Each structure stands twice: as structure tokens, then as C-alpha cells.
């Protein structure tokens, strides 16, 4: 229970200023707005304060103080999340990791790097690249998202088909639990069969168990001369046929899709069509092609698929610059539609279930939203679909959210029947909380609550996120 008395807030914040420099305990409206929300825009930020600790000791002191005074804390990274997990709309204290942004250690033998939680993803990627290595967890918000936030949502992105999720790269974590204890989890070990691996509880915990303060991450060798193909596809079934055939013949580092309706939004922002033909769907395939060694295979796959009627047109990148341009057709979609306040779905299925689900979901959405613009895109090679429903200009936000909420129940009923998850990579946060039971049954949620209770007995860590 959070016992927050507004009249006492000034004194409480002064208490924090005793161990964190006053300049880093902010209460101005701009900071509240800036740090009090993520990329979702449904909730109005209303934090009590924004605190920017500079080291682990200050984080620990803050958590202990919050326990003593029953203050709610919202851990905050780059705030690029899409589920409202970093939103502070109930007088919480935002704990921004922004100042804890140092890369602390690099070991070429271990091929690992240790950094503070506030390191921006792209900074880490560049750090690895400068040492001839690669941090392969990648997504459009790489320029702002932070490692701590990535870990807290188990971020996925565009290379999962080859490299897995954030979870697969974390070999060590330092966390301050909701009790204020500092845990040093797994310490970079590859093998460690010494009981429960608490590191994995914190990965994807969305700030509800404690605060991630430091991480050790594996690096790998960079992709060798990656090549990108964009293919124009007539229907959803053909996408799956392409997936099978391309995956069997090439080692893919990405297999993404987007619809013509989605493409139109990035074209409107100034990008060029990949080729003249317009098809209902497009697939983006990426694979390594050192010395052009797989070009012939890719071209013959293209011919075969065209003969089968699975694709109508396509393009293959001739340079890294062109590959990046083609990537933008997919990566820029989310930002290009933000102005329409889309209702976002980020669902996951086993790949074998994707075709049947797609058919049912497509029929449902066409029936229920005949007048709404529904955009399909995502990491279909991972079984991860982003279904975005754009708000019609003449519909107010509340009515739109209500309608989308109703259809979500129907959509998630279908998803549940196919054994899917209501979130693949964006997390539950506030937005998907009402639907968690479609993915986790009550018994399992009971265990989640027990875990929360063990790490955060006073319920101060990001209360109201994932479940109540
Ligand atoms: C992406 O894959 C991001 O582009 C955002 O996960 C997805 O906008 C979305 O729904
Ligand atoms: Zn995504």
C-alpha cells in the first residue's frame, strides 16, 4: 500500500536531498512531463518528483527511504516503451537512470562488456563496433532506449530470428531489490548451476521487482556484408511460404513484414517505394553475403517464388547504404503513424500457428473495424505481429480506446486459442494489464505475485504495472 500524503511531500523530498544532490531531485513541471511517461500517450504524467541518482549507493539509499516512507518508485530508462510501464501518473517518484551511463569494463577474452543501466543502446552498439564486435539486440529506438530499460522489458527487435532477445545476451546483473538489497547476479558466468537464476526474474520484470543498476552483456562478431531484400507479396499465406523457403536456404538475420497500408505512411514521410509494383504485403529479408557468395541462391529463390506466385516483385540491396534505406521502410513505420495515436497490439505466436491465427484475426478485424485503418507489420519470422489500429480523426480518444478494448477481448480470445501471448516484446505495463489473463492463468499469476512479494514486500516498485 502506498501511503502518500501530499502535504508532507516537500519534507519527504528534502529527505531525499540529504543523500542525492538537490539539483537531481526535480519537481518542475517540464521534468515531470518529460520523465513521467514513455512513448504511450494515454495517461497524463503526474509524478511527485524525478530523481536522478548518480551511483548504486544513491539508488540503494533511495529504495530504503522509499520503503521507510512507503513512496512508490517508477524506474525510468529511455522511456521508449510502448506499454506504459514507465508511466508515473499517480504521484510516484520517477527514478531516472540517465546519469548512470558509464561503460565500466570490456573484456575481449570474454567478449563481454559491463555497463551502468543508463547506457543508451546505440552507444553500446558503437562501443562494440569500435572493437570489431557487435551487440545484436537492435530496434528503431536504439538512439534513446537504455540498456536497463531493454533488460526490464526483455527487448527483442529486428534481429531476434538469428540472435534471440535481450535475455540471451545478459550474463550478469546488479540489481537493487525492492527491499533495498544489492544483488550481484551471475557475474558474467556462462555456466552456473547453483540454484535459481534470479537474473532471469529481473529480465522482463518491468521495474516491479527492483532497479537494474548494472549489466554484463555478451558481444559477438559483426554480420558479414549483410544484404537486404524487399519482396512484394500478394497475401499472408505467401509470406509463410517465403519464410519456409528462405529460411531453409539462407541463414537469415531478419525476416520482417509490413502491409501496403503501413508502407504508405513512410512513403508520405518522404521515403521511396522499393519498386513500382504495389502489393498488399512486403517482406524484408536480411542475410549475410560475404564476397557475394549467396547472391545466386537468393536470386534463384526469388525466381522460384515468383514462379509459384508468392511474390510479385522485389529488390536486393547493392550497397550498405541501400540496405539501410530499405530497412527504413520497415523501421520508420511506428514513428510515421504516431500522430494517429494508434491502438497497438504486440502479439506472439509459435510460428506454426501464425497462418491460422492471421486468417482468423484478419477476418475479425475486417468485420469489427470496417471503417478503421488497421496496419499489419512486425517480426513475423519470430511469430511477433504488431497490429496497429489508427484512430479516426472524428473519434475521440476515449470512445476509440473503448472500442479497441472490446475488440481486444475478441482478438485475445482467438490468440489464446492459438496458444499465443498478448505481448511479444513491448511488455504488459499498464496497457496490457487488463488482458494478462489471456496469457497467464490465475494459478500462474499467483506465483508472479509471490515473486513480487519476495522482492518488494511493501509494493513500492512500479505499483500497478503488469498486475495489481
Ligand atoms: C517495431 O517493431 C516496434 O517497429 C514498434 O516494436 C511496433 O509500433 C509498433 O507497434
Ligand atoms: Zn517490434
Give the structure's gist in a few sentences.
This protein is of the alpha+beta class and 468 residues long.
Structure description:
The chain is an alpha+beta fold and about 475 residues long. The protein folds into 4 domains: about 5-100, Uridine Diphospho-n-acetylenolpyruvylglucosamine Reductase, domain 2; about 105-220, Uridine Diphospho-n-acetylenolpyruvylglucosamine Reductase, domain 3 (2-Layer Sandwich), CATH 3.30.465; about 225-335, Alpha-Beta Plaits; about 340-425 and about 430-450, Alpha-Beta Plaits (2-Layer Sandwich). The chain is built from 15 helices and 16 strands. The strands form 3 sheets. It has a 7-stranded antiparallel sheet, sandwiched between helices. Strands 5-6-9-7-8 form a 5-stranded antiparallel sheet. It has a 4-stranded mixed sheet with strand order 1-2-4-3, sandwiched between helices. A hairpin with a 4-residue loop joins strand 7 and strand 8 (about 180-185). The model has no long low-confidence stretch (mean pLDDT about 95). Bound molecules: (2R)-2-hydroxypentanedioic acid (2HG) and zinc ion. (2R)-2-hydroxypentanedioic acid binds next to strand 14 and strand 16.
Amino acid at each position: 500500500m502506498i501511503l502518500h500524503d501530499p502535504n508532507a511531500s516537500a519534507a519527504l523530498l528534502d529527505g531525499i536531498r540529504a543523500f542525492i544532490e538537490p539539483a537531481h531531485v526535480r519537481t518542475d513541471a517540464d521534468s515531470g512531463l518529460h520523465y513521467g511517461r514513455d512513448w504511450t500517450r494515454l495517461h497524463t504524467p503526474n509524478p511527485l518528483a524525478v530523481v536522478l541518482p548518480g551511483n548504486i549507493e544513491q539508488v540503494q539509499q533511495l529504495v530504503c527511504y522509499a520503503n521507510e516512507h512507503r513512496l512508490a518508485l517508477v524506474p525510468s530508462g529511455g522511456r521508449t516503451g510502448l506499454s506504459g510501464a514507465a508511466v508515473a501518473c499517480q504521484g510516484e517518484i520517477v527514478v531516472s537512470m540517465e546519469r548512470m551511463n558509464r561503460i565500466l569494463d570490456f573484456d575481449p577474452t570474454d567478449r563481454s562488456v559491463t555497463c551502468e543501466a543508463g547506457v543508451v543502446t546505440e552507444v553500446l552498439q558503437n562501443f562494440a563496433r569500435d572493437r570489431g564486435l557487435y551487440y545484436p539486440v537492435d530496434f528503431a529506438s536504439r538512439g534513446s532506449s537504455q540498456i536497463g530499460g531493454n533488460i526490464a522489458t526483455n527487448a527483442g527487435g529486428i534481429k531476434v530470428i538469428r540472435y534471440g532477445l535481450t535475455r540471451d545476451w545478459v550474463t550478469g546483473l546488479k540489481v537493487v531489490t525492492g527491499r533495498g538489497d544489492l544483488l550481484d547476479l551471475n557475474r558474467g558466468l556462462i555456466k552456473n548451476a547453483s540454484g535459481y537464476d534470479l537474473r532471469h526474474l529481473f529480465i522482463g520484470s518491468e521495474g516491479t521487482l527492483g532497479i537494474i543498476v548494472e549489466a554484463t552483456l555478451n558481444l559477438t562478431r559483426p554480420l558479414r556484408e549483410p544484404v537486404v531484400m524487399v519482396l512484394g507479396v500478394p497475401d499472408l499465406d505467401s509470406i509463410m511460404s517465403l519464410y519456409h523457403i528462405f529460411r531453409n536456404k539462407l541463414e537469415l538475420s531478419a525476416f520482417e513484414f509490413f502491409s501496403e497500408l503501413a508502407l504508405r505512411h513512410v512513403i508520405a514521410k518522404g521515403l521511396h517505394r522499393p519498386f513500382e509494383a504495389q502489393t498488399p504485403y512486403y517482406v524484408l529479408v536480411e542475410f549475410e553475403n560475404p564476397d557475394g557468395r549467396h547472391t545466386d541462391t537468393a536470386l534463384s529463390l526469388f525466381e522460384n517464388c515468383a514462379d509459384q506466385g508468392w511474390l510479385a516483385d522485389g529488390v536486393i540491396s547493392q550497397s550498405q547504404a541501400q540496405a539501410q534505406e530499405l530497412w527504413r521502410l520497415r523501421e520508420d513505420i511506428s514513428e510515421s503513424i504516431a500522430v494517429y495515436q494508434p491502438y497497438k497490439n504486440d502479439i506472439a505466436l509459435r510460428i506454426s500457428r501464425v497462418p491460422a491465427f492471421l486468417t482468423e484475426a484478419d477476418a475479425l478485424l475486417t468485420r469489427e473495424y470496417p471503417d478503421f485503418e488497421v496496419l499489419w507489420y512486425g517480426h513475423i519470422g519470430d511469430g511477433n505481429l504488431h497490429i496497429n489500429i489508427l484512430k479516426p480523426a472524428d473519434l475521440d480518444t476515449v470512445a476509440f480506446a473503448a472500442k479497441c478494448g472490446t475488440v481486444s477481448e475478441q482478438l485475445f480470445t482467438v490468440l489464446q486459442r492459438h496458444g499465443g501471448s498478448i505481448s511479444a516484446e513491448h511488455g504488459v505495463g499498464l496497457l496490457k494489464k487488463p488482458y494478462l489473463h489471456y496469457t497467464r492463468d490465475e494459478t500462474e499469476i499467483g506465483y508472479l505475485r509471490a515473486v513480487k512479494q519476495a522482492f518488494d514486500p511493501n509494493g513500492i516498485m512500479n505499483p500497478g504495472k503488469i498486475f495489481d
